[in-house]
Amino acid sequence: MTDSDALRAAAETMRAVRERCVWSQQITHRDLVPYLIEESHEVIDAVETGDRAELREELGDLLWQVLFHAAIAAQDPDDPFDIDDVAETLTEKMVRRHPHVFGDEVANTPEEVLVHWNAAKAAEKRTRTSVLDGVPRGMPALALAQKVLGRAARVGAGADVALAAHDAAEIGAAPESEEELGDLLLTLTATARANGWDAERALRERLRTLEDEVRTAEAG
Question: Which residues form the NTP pyrophosphohydrolase MazG-like domain (predicted)?
Fold first, then answer.
């Protein structure tokens, strides 16, 4: 079976489930959100633990979520679209954003690739009025903070946070209120961004160490 045949079979399986499974028939886009979040985090966990078999399975579960949303969308009475429409839109966007691959532009470094990507994205999103438009508010707080700090830097905002990130004394100070704790977390996130670190991943990795310590203590 070719890759395209396998994807088509998965899409047809989803279509049959949507049409014939009583539970699946009642599910809406909104109902699926918790499952989408859970499956995304399970993919992340498989990537970070290096479990290849788990990664293959979890990527399949995540693909199922995409197929499920597309199957629901195909039944919308006012604005229907299916998985083929999703794939077509994706292909068109990726071709536009890679003019150095599919066009005459040249990019010899990752930085030059990013210039083309951002230019294409800006052209697509001309109706946006703020650098914060398009930032999903449902992101985990640390990841959201890192995203917002990056957008703020584009317009010269958040400079005080960036300066505080280099103040080791402030970073080490114990907060005396929840508001100060928020300031400290934002400062630490700015430190992560300044060093090219992923704040969300850093905390997840540290939590994995703590989980190992807990299990060792339970077994001891």
Answer: 28-102
Show contacts of 55-63: CB within 8 Å, 24+ apart: 63/10
Q: Taking the model in full, what pTM does it have?
A: 0.73
- The token duo for 203 is 């905390």
How far is it, in rounded angstroms, from Cα 31 to Cα 28?
5
Which numeric CATH code is attached to 139-219? 1.10.287.1080
Residues of the chain with CATH 1.10.287.1080: 3-81, 139-219
CA 19, distance to chain mean position in Å, is 30
pLDDT digits (tens, 9 = 90+) for 143-189: 888 888 888 777 777 555 555 555 544 556 678 888 888 888 888 88
Could you count the other beta carbons within 10 Å of the beta carbon of residue 163? Answer: 12
Report the 3 state secondary structure along the chain: CCHHHHHHHHHHHHHHHHHHCHHHHHCCHHHHHHHHHHHHHHHHHHHHHCCHHHHHHHHHHHHHHHHHHHHHHHCCCCCCCCHHHHHHHHHHHHHHCCHHHHCCCCCCCHHHHHHHHHHHHHHHCCCCCCCCCCCCCCCCHHHHHHHHHHHHHHCCCCHHHHHHCCCHHHHHCCCCCHHHHHHHHHHHHHHHHHCCCCHHHHHHHHHHHHHHHHHHHHHC
